[in-house]
Specification:
By secondary structure, the protein is an alpha/beta fold. The protein has three domains: 236 residues, P-loop containing nucleotide triphosphate hydrolases (Rossmann fold); 180 residues, 3-Layer(aba) Sandwich (Rossmann fold), CATH 3.40.50.300; 71 residues, no CATH class. Helices cover 33% and strands 26% of the residues. The strands form five sheets. Strands 16-19-20-13-21-22-23 form a seven-stranded mixed sheet, with helices on both faces. A six-stranded mixed sheet has the order 6-7-8-3-9-10, sandwiched between helices. Strands 2-1-4-5 form a four-stranded antiparallel sheet, with helices on one face. Bound molecules: adenosine-5'-triphosphate (ATP) and magnesium ion. The site of adenosine-5'-triphosphate has 19 residues, from strand 2, helix 1 and helix 15. This is Sugar ABC transporter ATP-binding protein.
């Protein structure tokens, strides 16, 4: 089938102080095509999108859309041209209702000039049910899960009569079931001739949904490929500019039977979310929690970290019963928590990379309240190198780093505190394939140094590669406790889907 080009960007250049983010990049997309934009963290993907949609002005280059030259100065102008974007950071208004969000900035008015809420409600309902989503549109957006919020953002994008919809990492916070719903929506848009730019670090998704792939590396165009001409290894090699290695299962024998327990949670209840779950983690053990969104994984981690108080249940730290009233107490015991939502809980955007990395560490490296600058810098440089954090300097504001690189700084923050237990909620969310293997290696290094890890991940393969033991959860209960060969995606998936309880022969406990 011949491609009918709808968007053509030519010779795009964009610099930030100290960084040339886009160097002479060409990019074109055809009608009715799902086009992946791929590249490592910091390659320039989001910047290219922001230049296209008027968030950033470009230094030079041309943009042709639907046969005419455009130069939008804002997202609103881009929208008027027919380009709608769902950003990496959701830009909706959490305290307003679902329907208000869908019509944000282009509210429908009645003939008296006041808001026509009835029509907006009905319109929102229809848009969402077209996407197979039947929710109450009168509820404030923040009451819904990230996944549903994402769908609302998409409904909003579609409702603007967009000809091109851009999705910057739309699936990073969705679980497998929700990804299916999103893909249905994408296919529907595609069949209406709408073009889609799809950014994701999940390769299998790209191979499933995309027809074309454009690859960027260090701000430069590597090439534009039809998906049939690529396989996963080739795609990764092109992205990272060297031979790709397959990520492998790190451990297949369970070696923790005689090891001391670091922490044990017993019969934990919290509202309707946790219903009598218990877990234990040995010293140096990497324990995985698998389950769909809403299965209670994050709540369980929050209880352990003193973020929420359980209604019932006991927690033991080194066999001693503890009552964790707040995260400070958990940190004092020796826990670290790398959160899922870096925007809300994690980063201090107005502070530098160095400050963000060492903020929790200051009591340890300061002497009589004076921070050892040298030590702070040594540590920061160590992790910048180790995790290949892409930043012009450690004094760059973290808000200026690409999404994936911000995530790496957060990981480093907890790692450099040398805790006994690190809770990681979706640790490699938004992290590129190359860096993923480095983070996985680091997890194993921590584990062999006796540091325990509680790992929550929606990517089952990630749990499969890294964990000594995996608990499968649903509705706040444990469905399975798996070790060795039983840690495999097929069994985990079928356990999540079934109602029965499964356990490895000896269990890990
Ligand atoms: N506002 C800004 N100020 C300074 N530098 C920036 C700014 N925005 C992006 N950069 C830099 O431009 C480069 C490209 O960043 P960009 O966000 O486009 O990467 P990306 O490909 O989207 O990465 P990721 O996969 O991590 O989201 C990075 O080196 C980043 O640090
Ligand atoms: Mg990005």
């Amino acid at each position: 089938m011949e491609r009918k080009i709808i968007l053509e960007m030519k010779n795009i250049e964009k610099s930030f102080p100290g960084v040339k983010a886009l160097k002479n990049v060409d990019f074109s997309v055809a009608e009715g095509e799902v086009h992946a934009l791929m590249g490592e963290n910091g390659a320039g993907k989001s910047t290219l999108i922001k230049v296209l949609t008027g968030v950033y002005g470009k230094d030079s280059g041309d943009i042709m859309f639907q046969g005419k030259s455009i130069n939008p100065k804002s997202t609103l102008e881009a929208q008027e041209e027919g380009i709608s974007t769902i950003y990496q950071e959701l830009n909706l208004s959490p305290f307003q209702t679902v329907y208000e969000n869908i019509y944000l900035g282009r509210e429908i008015k009645n003939k008296y000039g006041s808001l026509d809420r009835k029509q907006m409600r009905a319109g929102a309902k229809e848009l969402l049910s077209d996407m197979g989503l039947h929710i109450d549109v009168d509820v404030p957006l923040r009451k819904y899960s990230t996944a549903i919020q994402q769908m609302v953002a998409i409904a909003r994008a579609v409702s603007t009569k967009a000809k091109l919809v851009i999705m910057d990492e739309p699936t990073s916070s969705l679980d497998t079931k929700e990804v299916r719903v999103l893909f249905d929506v994408i296919n529907r848009l595609k069949s209406q001739g709408i073009a889609i730019i799809f950014i994701s670090h999940r390769l299998d998704e790209v191979f499933e949904i995309c027809g074309h792939v454009t690859i960027l590396k260090d701000g430069e165009l590597v090439g534009d490929y039809s998906i049939e001409d690529l396989d996963q290894m080739k795609l990764v090699s092109l992205m990272i500019g060297r031979e790709a290695v397959t990520l492998e299962r790190k451990k297949d024998k369970y070696t923790f039977r005689d090891v001391d327990e670091l922490v044990k949670m017993e019969d934990i209840h919290f509202e309707t979310k946790l219903n009598g779950i218990g877990i234990s983690i040995k010293k140096g053990e990497v324990l995985g929690l698998a389950g769909l969104l809403g299965s209670g994984r994050t709540e369980l981690a929050n209880v352990l970290f003193g973020e929420i108080r359980p209604d019932k249940g006991n927690i033991y730290w080194l066999d001693k019963k503890v009552s964790l009233k707040n995260p400070q107490m958990a940190i004092k015991l020796g826990m670290g928590f790398c959160t899922e939502d870096r925007k809300v809980e994690g980063i201090f955007p107005e502070m530098t990379v160095k400050e963000n990395m060492t903020v929790a560490l200051l009591p340890q490296i300061s002497k009589h309240g004076i921070i050892s600058n040298k030590k702070e810098e040594e540590l920061t440089q160590y992790y910048i190198d180790k995790l290949r954090i892409k930043t012009p300097s450690m004094d760059q504001l973290i808000g200026n780093l690409s999404g994936g690189n911000q995530q790496k700084v957060l990981l480093a923050r907890w790692m450099c505190m040398n805790p006994d237990l690190i809770i990681m909620d979706e640790p490699t969310r938004g992290i590129d394939v190359g860096a993923k293997s480095e983070i996985e290696d680091l997890i194993q290094e921590l584990s062999s140094n006796g540091i325990s890890i509680l790992m929550i991940s929606s990517e089952i393969e990630e749990l499969e590669r890294n964990c000594d033991r995996v608990y499968v959860m649903r509705e706040g209960k444990e469905l399975a406790d798996l070790i060795e060969d039983d840690i495999n995606s097929d069994l985990i998936m079928s356990t999540i889907a079934s109602a029965g309880k499964v356990s490895s022969k000896e269990g890990g406990k």
